[in-house]
Amino acid sequence: MHNEFTNAERAEVLTAALPYIKKYSGKVVLIKYGGNAMQTESLKQQVMEDIALLWLIGVKVVLVHGGGPEISQTMKALGKEAVFVDGLRVTDEETMDIVQMVLAGKVNKSLVNLIQTKGGHAVGVSGVDGGIIEAKVKDPRLGLVGEITKVRTQPILDMLEKNYIPVISTIASDRQGNTYNINGDTAAAYIAGALGAERMFLMTDIAGILRDKDDPSTLIPHVTTTEAMALREEGIISGGMIPKVECCVEALEHGVKNVVIMDGRTPHSILMELLTDEGAGTMVTKG
Description:
- α2 (about 40-55) packs across α4, α3 (about 70-75) crosses α4 and α6 runs parallel beside α8 (about 240-255).
- It contains nine helices and 14 strands.
- It has an eight-stranded mixed beta sheet with strand order 5-8-2-1-11-13-14-12, sandwiched between helices. Strands 3-4 form a two-stranded antiparallel sheet. Strands 6-7 form a two-stranded antiparallel sheet.
- The mean pLDDT is about 90.
- With about 290 residues, it is an alpha/beta fold.
């Protein structure tokens, strides 16, 4: 693989990336990574490589992750049935223990470990640590599913200032010490907004917003929030894409400059999006 490029070509690639490196160095970029985009080991390795590389060129990367499939697998292994209401996992106390164990334990630490093997320095925390995410009950029918009431950015800023990549699992707590399961995309939007991130990436298992959901060549490279709402009315944005787009709108309203919905299955899609003018996925901006 490495011999396909001459040294001159490599140098050219690096100099072409220079204006982008300059633009994002020292800026906060939040990456939401989770669920199905995390299923393939080789892709996971590449995403962590991209994150380590961005960190090495001075981008302040914050990684927020989910882990729905792993939670479901662990519940199954423990003989517990997953129940969903309106697409949200009903979370009783026993399920909450499993969520905390899988997200804040297994998934969080494996991502931290991977980033470190790629040369980055990462620290794994959950939304409970330092009171990063405070929440309350979203809907009694869902049990311990939380609605975010407050985001404290200080612990995240402290880690960034000391040059660590914060890796955040999306569980939260309230003042009474109850813990809550938080939707990963929503948590990412709130955290990115509170940090005033330059850009937020939502890594999914589709190419972005497509005019025809079965045809990747119909990718829409850029939409404004107004256009996105119109596409939803038309039924072009439907199903699992609706919450993703709502999440983008939320992030933009909270102060993120722009949001990109992108395909976590494309190798090095983060680098293509951030360091080339080609881009990858659909960029959503305010307007």
